[in-house]
Specification:
Immunoglobulin-like, 24-stranded antiparallel barrel, 58% strand, 685 residues
Length: 685
């Protein structure tokens, strides 16, 4: 136990040190403002949005923000005298006097008295632009410039006057008479569904050859994928047609659906969303995982509400050769490559109490970038009082709507059906009920689940009980909360003769605590996460999993470091060895080159380097770009390198790629990508 604790501490310290070293800014006094470097931030203080935005610039090694805009947003009595080249006043407390004297090159802020550092203040057309690190020190708060989301995040250990004023206004509003506000009274425009709306089609065609020395085989492939989206019979329709390696159609996915912000669909069902074809099943707190398959779903839940209050699964189409990244509030959480089934999946992503802004970024081989953003607010009122939400559906797991080939399925393709209800009792309490019939561990079972959810101050608590018709049972308690700047999540599960999709077979207990907190390293704020999980099984096994993650988002780079440790014990036989791994994810730019990398080390057992991949993309001209990748896999003792060239023409893009490995494996291919869609002026383009 002591050995892996020491290892964990040392590796975590290394992660923090590496990230801190990478972020050390270099100030340059010769910088001049340019419109290409200009920025506009929203200002966030906790759950509040302040002011009308803050202007800023990207400077060498830092970000600066307009001092006058920050003064207005925080409502601090500081005045700027441009004639004297001086700013004076106080911030948040009268004893915290501020005197920025640029003529003398000195600044006094509270107990701080120092020279104005090189690159701390720049002259811009808007006025004084102050580096966020320097301004945070002078004001006594944390300032984090989230460039990806264009948000200036302010954190303070003490409540600021502007925050307390907003809270007082909220309390005052609670005692005022309720005023009905109907969004329908605002100007809006509806785009009615049509019997036919010409679809937009994306096509990817690949021709390539491969000689794999590890498998001792060679192959030549001809593949294509077609993605279409349009409207048929007053319903939105998405479709994907994919071939096998010989160019023969293999599978067809198709989904027809309608969605509405108001419960006006399907007559008496008053649904907000329904879909038929390729759908995703519902998740439940204990038994069922969301699974893709062919079937139908119908629900009146609001479109922006997740199925589970503490977790969310992100799944979507991923064409061949594309890659996907998942961000939460600007923090890189995961990376997914083409896995052969045309989908990306980030399963059971944990939600935080408060605002969760998720962004899935898709990168195509021709330089395409697509973003899908979803904002989830986990708050005190999960479902309005005296309102009932329902969900119903049935689907066949892991099957496309139409299977055109003769290939078998490695995964089970069983049918499932489910129904769920949620009812808000009051502003803080709600009830939920789930009934599912599905196959778990080759046994068809009917599972009944009931939940009670209650908010307590800045925390949500949910207690769930579950029963299966074979006689097993399980109970689970969950907590999500925010205490100051610390986010806490915890859960405890006990089970008896109960097998679930979420937690596997033979589990008798699972107990988890996770803490997210922003730590300060010098003048830089870094999100840190720690998680501990303890599991017990029917056969006497016990497992302890410890994981930590530290992230940094600075200027043009996002960096995430991870460490995980697993310790297992068994009732009979020798103890399994401990397992410890560390890894890094990085994404950013150096000049015009976009870089993305991933690396993993195994510390226990058998200390060794596991794998690494570095990808670089850069422009080769107005209509062309290059892509290079270098990777190493310890399991295969193989290093591989690839190069690709993209040429974009008026109506299509062409990619040529080649790859070679140190074991003699080689591959080469051509990718053709083009799109067809309706032209607003008429016809097809």
């Amino acid at each position: 136990m002591r050995r892996w604790i020491s290892t964990t501490k040392a590796a975590l310290a290394g992660l923090v040190a590496l990230a801190g070293a990478a972020m050390a800014p270099a100030q340059t006094a010769d910088w001049e403002p340019h419109p290409d470097d200009s920025l506009l931030f929203d200002v966030r203080l906790g759950d509040y949005r302040l002011g009308d935005g803050v202007r800023g610039y990207q400077t060498p090694g830092s970000v600066c923000v307009d001092l006058a805009d920050v003064i207005d947003a925080l409502d601090v009595p500081v005045s700027i005298d441009e004639d004297e080249n001086r700013a004076r006043g106080w911030a948040f407390r009268e004893e915290n006097q501020i005197d920025i004297n640029r003529a003398a090159g000195r600044v006094r802020a509270g107990d701080i008295s120092e020279n104005i550092g090189q690159g701390a203040i720049y002259n811009t057309p808007e006025g004084w632009c102050v580096a966020t690190q320097a301004l945070a020190l002078w004001l006594g708060v944390d300032l984090e410039a989230d460039l990806r989301n264009a948000v200036l995040v302010i954190n303070s250990e003490e409540a600021l006057p502007v925050q307390m004023a907003l809270e007082r206004r909220q309390r005052a509003q609670r005692i005022r008479p309720d005023i009905d506000f109907d969004l329908a009274t605002l100007p809006h425009g509806d785009t009615p569904y049509r019997m036919w709306r010409t679809p937009s089609v994306d096509a990817v065609v690949r021709i390539g050859g491969l000689r794999d020395m590890q498998r001792g085989s060679s192959s030549f492939e001809r593949r294509y994928e077609l993605f279409a989206s349009g409207e048929v019979l007053t319903a939105s329709v998405d479709a994907r047609l994919a071939s096998d390696n010989r160019g023969v159609p293999e599978s067809l996915r198709m989904r027809a659906f309608r969605s509405s912000n108001d419960p006006v669909l399907l007559g008496p069902l008053r649904a907000r969303h329904f879909a038929i074809g390729d759908v995703t099943s519902q998740t439940t707190p204990i038994a069922a995982q969301p699974t893709a398959g062919r079937g139908f779903v119908v629900t009146n839940r609001p479109l922006d509400r997740p199925d589970s209050f503490d977790r969310k699964t992100f799944r979507g189409d991923l064409p061949e050769g594309w890659e996907a990244e998942l961000y939460r509030n600007g923090q890189l959480l995961g990376f997914s490559q083409d896995r052969g089934d045309g989908r990306y999946e980030f399963a059971d992503v944990e939600l935080r109490y408060g605002i969760n802004r998720f962004e899935v970024v898709l990168y195509g081989p021709q330089g395409q970038i697509r973003r899908d953003t979803e904002v989830i607010n986990v708050g005190a009122q999960s479902i309005p009082p005296r309102e009932t939400w329902y969900w119903a559906g049935a689907s066949q797991d892991n099957r496309d709507l139409v299977n055109l080939g003769d290939r078998g399925f490695a995964r089970n393709a069983n049918w499932r059906a489910g129904f769920g209800l949620e009812r808000g009792l009051n502003a803080r309490t709600s009830l939920a009920f789930h009934l599912n019939n599905l196959v778990i561990a080759d046994e068809r079972v009917t599972v009944v689940e009931g939940s009670v959810r209650r908010s307590f101050g800045p925390a949500l608590v949910q207690v769930t009980g579950s029963w299966v018709d074979s006689g097993g049972y399980a109970a689970r308690a969950q907590l999500l909360g925010r205490f100051g700047n610390t986010y806490v999540s915890a859960e405890s599960l006990i089970a008896q003769d109960f097998t679930t999709e979420r937690f596997g077979r033979g589990l008798t207990g699972r107990h988890t605590v996770a803490v997210d907190h922003n730590i300060r390293l010098g003048r830089t704020v870094m999100p840190l996460r720690g998680e501990v999980t303890y599991e017990t099984y029917e056969d006497g096994r016990k497992e302890i999993d410890v994981a930590a993650r530290v992230s940094a988002n600075f200027r043009r780079f996002s960096l995430t470091g991870e460490i995980s440790h697993r310790q297992r014990s068994v009732r009979i036989g020798p103890e399994p060895p401990d397992e410890t791994e560390i890894g890094f994810l990085a994404n950013g730019r150096i000049g015009r080159v976009r870089l993305r990398g991933e690396a993993r080390w195994r510390l226990r057992p058998h200390n060794r380097f596991e794998s690494a991949t570095v990808t670089a993309e850069w422009g080769g001209g107005e209509n062309s770009s290059w892509r290079a990748e270098l990777g190493y896999q310890a399991a295969l003792d193989r290093t591989r390198a690839s190069i690709g060239y993209v040429r974009r023409f008026r109506h299509f893009a062409l990619t040529a790629s080649a790859e070679a490995a140190t074991d003699g494996s080689v591959a080469a291919g051509l990718n053709l990508a083009f799109s067809l869609g309706p032209d607003p002026r008429g016809g097809i383009r």
